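In the previous chapter we treated chains in isolation. Here, by contrast, the input contains two separate entities that must be folded as one system, with a combined length of 936 residues.
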Amino acid sequence: MVNPVPAIPSERRKIRVSTSGEDVLLRLCLIALGVFLVVGLLLPIYTLLSKGVQDADGNFVGLQNFITYFNEPRVSVVFFNSLRISVISTAITLLIAGGYAFALTHSRMPGRGFFRAVALMPLLTPSLLPGIALIYLFGTQGFFREALLGYSLYGPIGIVMGEVFFTFPIALMIVLTSLLTIDRRLYEAAKTLRAGKVRTFFTVTLPAMRFGLSAAFFAVFTKVFTDFGVPITVGGSYPVLATDLYQKVIGGFDFQMGAVVGILLFIPAAIAFLIGHLLQRGHSAGIDGSAVIYIPEKSRGRDIACFVFCAAVAAAILGILLMAVLGSLFKLWPYNLSLSLASYNFTAHESSGWSAYGNSLKLAGGTAVFGTALIFFGAYLLERMPGAAWMRAVIGFLCMVPLAMPGMVLGLSYIFFFNNPSNPLGGIYGTMTILILSTVVHLYTVPHLTALTSLKQLDPGLEAVGSSLKVSRFVTFGRVILPVSLPTILRIASYLFMNSMTTISALVFLYSANTKVATISVLLLNDNAMLGPAAAMSVLIVATSAAVVSLQWLLMQGLLRRTNAWRGKEA
Amino acid sequence: MQDLSDTAQTAPMPALQISGLSKSFGTFTALKGIDLAIEKGEFVCFLGPSGCGKTTLLRAIAGLDVQDYGTILQNGRDISGLPVHGRDFGIVFQSYALFPNLSVARNVGFGLRGSDLTRAQRKARVAELLSMVGLDGQAEKYPAQLSGGQQQRVALARALAPSPGLLLLDEPLSALDAQVRLHLRDQLRQLQRDLGVTTIMVTHDQDEALSIADRIVVMRQGEIEQIGTPEEVFRHPATAFVAGFLGDMNFIPGTVASENSVSVGQIAVKVPDTTGHDRGDRVNLCIRPADIMVGKFGDETPNRMDAKVESMSFRGNFHQLSVFCPAISQNLEIELRHQGQGGHSICEGATLTIALSPEKLVIFA
């Protein structure tokens, strides 16, 4: 070994990088994010879980509460009802979504863009809306009640119908993604190897769908298992966990049993989340974005079949939405079907009147502004900050937890945590702040992942170059990272706004007389058999969501046009 | 070996003095006690295969991945533990890391905003830099509207804007097409000469390193194998690894027979000397394919032997031969220049006479 340099004797001490003010500030921001997640997520969950293993006097009793629950068939039947409903709804949803996704990607039927747009519309609705529309359609006085052949809508039939409507777009999007990543060359290879159509379907198409279908299974199952809006409207006397929890806590003030039911609601959702997560991890390597998109050949028979199928599904979705709109316009259903706007005069039907809608806007606006800033900057810290690896890993994991957290469980845990007289933060109980806090935490994971994905795509050297030029990371963040990420930020804000408008699960336990929001108002109006005004408020929510989505689309177009020059091909 | 680039005696204090630098990632040791001094105005290349630690060393100098142990002095100032923005360097990454939403002018001027230059001075400085790298008239374009070579030059201009004392280049040419790469390599060399800025470039391309550097630091498995001018490392490799990494090389295993011969197979190969090796030691004789002579030799020519051509392929300026030599029962690679064919009618299956001139043979343990 040649070494012309005389080595300077240096003592063996580990080099520590002297921390600058900027580093300290970045770490403080990271700590603040950690504190937010601990207070908004971890401590409430912990309180709930510990309540589940205590008796009414607060003594530790282990799993005794759960043993009691399952030993009482009249009680535990609810749990099995939930399981049954979830499995049936998920199976039906997957079947329809699978067929629909196949038709959209593997046929040349006309109107594919329209069918795609219609299929996503249920995303704009609160889950109370399909229930209300179904009452108009198939309820005891419904227009098509004979179609149920004498069976009652209220119960499993209604719940399954509503859940299928509600979860269809979720399943569709996942399956569609998996189908779009099939490489056209696979089909071409199959063809040159003289595989028939059926064999090609089973060896190319179905394996590609299999991942999408299983991921969709877990997503839909979780959604149905924890949904509150559909069963509360059309569940009748068929109790499921979510409605049971609501009745126990709001009707009976039985917090002890509430905690047990809440944990039961949480466990299958958590398991489904974990399996779905593992599936994702194993699969993501296969998707590299380089696939050549498949363009199906002409086939008249297939295209007609696909068109008929999609038309039927789209008609059902539009039918439910249209029914809600019509329902809101009937003067007095089912006796007087002349149209009027009377149902929209909320002051006449409910003490809170229009203020519920105003509260919803406040909640959605607050969540969008505060949530977007927090989630995007949080993702920036986690993805692009140097050092603090251990802390970033822990906080990164905490950011994933809300996905496994049913909204109702979160809401319930907030009661336990914030309504405790010894909690110094108890002051936010009953205010808009706690609604915004719970909604941000509830919706955290999906926009967090969106932000991470987008930040990962930025060159890792950007901040390093900035620092080498003696420019603060905060300046580089403001001048480069933020402008480049504007489309993502817009997407996140719109997602948060829309979902805050339509959510009810966590809020049902947390609203107060002054902070009643629109979805709660729908729930109460429906409880009081004021179906018209309930439909009217639901329609108002959908209209607002739709307006926000359109606004986001317009802004995005403008933004992309304006930044066309530097986005290059991307725009 | 004295040549013009040897500036050791003129600079009293090195621009960069690295001592005992070590770094591990988990159980993987990326750098093992690196000692290195770089003079002012030098162009140094860190050369080695991937995973040899060259990029880690560069990032340690930049403060991006700070070393676990060891010190770095820049112009005598200890920068070992300083954060990135406390050091004095400009950097160009392989990906360039240009700010996509800022125009070329704003990219180049990014590091000038905090300086005490006036707006007009900044503008003039940006214009000066752009013309220096040959990008006049591109100031208002965005990076996405430029070719790869132009983007590389924007990155270079941006790094040079605050007149740093040290320029760090992390494989700056490897993302470019071959033609552009050759052109920019020369341009980069010229620019560095003109500015006199101390420059370190990381590369895995030996041609690039040989043609551009004043000195090459050859690295392997976190250690420095050899430091020297391109001539030195190419002509006088210090280790078998360096010999094999810089250009093609034939390795002929043998045993030291005497002070100036190594026995290989049935014959004794004459070598200049075997200093440092004892009689009976197993060694490797190295000779470059282009240094093997082919033709008719007189009896006085040492190390003559017969060779049977096993395969032959045309490579433009030369023919690449793979021959088998029964005397040493081994295959050798030969680069045969057209001028030197000497009337042989060479084809596959033909038998040639080759000679390994002793002064071209290098011995390694």
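Confidence is low (pLDDT under 50) at residues 1-10 of chain A. Strands of chain A lie at 330-332, 336-339. Compare these points with the single-chain example from earlier in the chapter.
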